[in-house]
Amino acid sequence: MANNCENKVTLRHTDPAMIKRVKRALRQGKLFAEFIPDCTHWGDGQRDVGGEIIDSDANEIEINFLSRWEPPRKVFTKLSEMGFVIDAYYNEGGDAFCGNWTSEGGDSFYSYEGLSVDEVIAKIPAEIDIRFVISDTMAEEIKWNESFTQPQEN
Q: Does 18 reside within a domain?
């Protein structure tokens, strides 16, 4: 079974028609295929997605969606080649990694597997940690687990 990777993405384009295409494709659950018809044959396990529109205007749209196992880096690359400027944040909590992919800078990848809460706060950029509440979620899980290991008073 695939782990879901959370993606929070801002797409910008100078042509408002391209942003309208993104909106329509998201509503139809075909974001990848709208722009890259052969993406299902890439063999990387990705499937097409719908998603949630968070905010938009004529030249920009902010969306959230889930992908399988990892962010759709190949899709981001293809969309960038089509004139989109992309700022994407992702988190895959099951395999404990996160990052940021941009058209200008490519991928910044961070693993937090086996790290303590303090180590996550020190290693993961705050803009990623805050977007996905990684360290706060870890701290809550620790408290919850400790509640089961504390001796019960009679």
A: yes
Q: Specify the amino acid at residue 127.
A: E
Sheet holding 106-111, edge to edge: 52-57, 60-68, 4-12, 85-92, 97-102, 106-111
Question: How much is the pTM?
Answer: 0.87
- Domain count for the chain, please give it: 1
Q: How many CB atoms lie within 10 A of CB 82?
A: 12
pLDDT tens column, 70-106: 999 988 999 999 999 999 999 999 999 999 999 999 9
Query: The domain spanning residue 90 has which CATH number?
Result: 3.30.70.1270
- What tokens appear for 41 in the block? 């044959």
Q: Is 143 inside a domain boundary?
A: no
In a domain, residue 106? The reply is yes
**Smallest Cα–Cα separation from 7: which of 97, 82, 81, 80?**
97
- From residue 130, alpha-carbon distances to 60, 73, 124 in Å are 22, 22, 10
**What integer pLDDT is reported at residue 100 of this predicted model?**
98
